[in-house]
Amino acid sequence: MSIRPRVLVADDYPDIVKAVCRSLAVECDVVGTVSDGGALLDAVQRLQPDVIVLDLNLPNVHALTACRQITRINPAMKVIIFSAMSEQAVTDASLAAGATAFVSKLGSGEDLLSVITRLCIDRD
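Request: output the structure for the sequence above.
Response:
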């Protein structure tokens, strides 16, 4: 029996958060949601998620700065940048900051779930 991935969702748009949580609830345990970068860093330490779904444009702490901090502290934690900005330079910058994957918000909820499932399948 496999363990469901524990996911933290960080996005400042409540409707996006609701949609993402609804989509992920099928196969993941959403352990928390945050709407700004400062709360993100606190929640990561407190909740210890397996995966963080991170919007690129959060208030207070830039997402790529947060990504660098998270992956430096816990390299096993998977950070997925989730953004409507899908230019190659944005994807490259995200991966260079330590993100495990980049998923466009313009895709479907199944895209995000598929990436999380793929990232967590070999974690044990």
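The mean pLDDT is 91.
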